[in-house]
Design a protein that fits this description.
By secondary structure, the chain is mostly beta strands. It has one domain: Single-stranded right-handed beta-helix, Pectin lyase-like (Pectate Lyase C-like, 3 Solenoid), CATH 2.160.20. The protein is 7% helix and 43% strand. It has two helices and 28 strands. The chain has a 19-stranded parallel sheet that branches. Strands 4-7-9-11-14-17-20-23-26 form a nine-stranded parallel sheet. α2 links the parallel β1 and β2. It is globular.
Length: 314
């Protein structure tokens, strides 16, 4: 049985985010959904559950949650759909800035910017969520699907992300992370761990992206020195989608056909993954090659262990 050093962290996040006494605040789809749903997120108190009814919520602006200890729960990712096709501004679909939040059992479609972003939100759980840009891979799609940053104790479990123009599942500048049991397809980067400490990425499927799984460390960010990342028991296959990232994005340089790319990190383990049909490279380990002016930044990659992976055709 494999040792999963982040399992206890993930369990702690789940427990911390589960209300002991919950008041249900039901929000139905239909006319006025924008105002009614945002009001529910404003009036919710710690321990409350904002329950999304079945149907499509036609939204014209982003939503925000800044109350700790709230659960947002739908009837399922194909039953409760937050549609931002009519969004007027290019912000996030949903922005969370509070701790001990659970997001589960709903979908976000066609946000103008990032689909779900959480910032400085410790002990956050994303579970059984679908994010999709329904028009297929396009440069004009939002950059990130699931997007927690600057957080501790992050659990991303059983999510599906399709069509992000940067990364489908992205965790940045965070500590103690688990990304598991998820599917990323037709994104530029399927799963990206960037400038993070202590992450397990396992039992996921990354397919039909430009690059399947990226582990990056970049300059000029508040948290640097990414390390202690394990990527294991994933299926990384047929990542052959042409790169559709906007010019200037760091992932715009990722070659189509990349399985796993590690850049400028240390203490990385890549093991027991299955690779097949990635046309450029199953595993790529590189230093940071662009110019930078950050005196603290370390562009080299150190102590990467690769073992017991299964390689099919490339």
């Amino acid at each position: 049985m494999k040792r999963k050093f982040a399992a206890a962290i993930a369990l702690m996040a789940c427990v911390a985010s589960t209300p002991l006494v919950a008041r249900d605040i039901a929000v139905a789809a239909g006319p006025g959904a924008q105002e009614r749903l945002q009001e529910a997120l404003i009036v919710a108190q710690p321990g409350d559950v904002v329950k999304l009814g079945e149907g499509r919520f036609a939204l014209t602006d982003g939503l925000s949650l800044d109350i700790a200890g709230v659960t947002v729960k739908g009837a399922g990712p194909d039953k409760s759909v937050l549609s931002f096709a009519g969004q007027l501004a290019a912000g996030e679909g949903l922005l969370v800035t509070s701790d001990n939040v659970v997001l589960r059992d709903f979908a976000v479609e066609d946000s103008k910017g990032d689909a779900i972003k959480s910032k400085g939100a410790d002990n956050i759980v994303y579970h059984n969520i679908r994010v999709e840009w329904t028009g297929g891979p396009k440069e004009t799609n939002g950059a990130y699907g699931i997007y927690p940053v600057e957080s501790e104790n992050v659990l991303v479990d059983s999510v599906l992300v399709i069509g992000a123009s940067d990364a489908g599942i992205y965790v940045g500048q965070s500590r103690n992370i688990v990304v598991r049991n998820s599917i990323a397809r037709f994104n530029v980067a399927g799963i990206e761990i960037e400038n993070c400490f202590n992450a397990d990425v396992h039992d996921n499927v990354a397919t039909k992206n430009t690059g399947g799984i990226l582990v990056f460390d970049l300059p000029n960010l508040p948290q640097q020195g990414g390390h202690n990342v394990r990527v294991f028991d994933n299926i990384v296959a047929e990542n052959d989608t042409p790169n559709f990232a906007p010019k200037g994005n760091i992932v715009a340089s990722v070659p189509s056909g990349t399985g796993i790319m590690v850049m400028a990190n240390r203490d990385i383990e890549i093991f027991d993954n299955v690779f097949d049909g990635n046309g450029s490279s199953n595993i790529m380990v590189i230093g940071y090659r662009q110019k930078y002016d950050d005196a603290k930044y370390q562009p080299s990659v150190r102590n990467v262990r690769i073992s017991d992976n299964a390689h099919g055709k490339t």
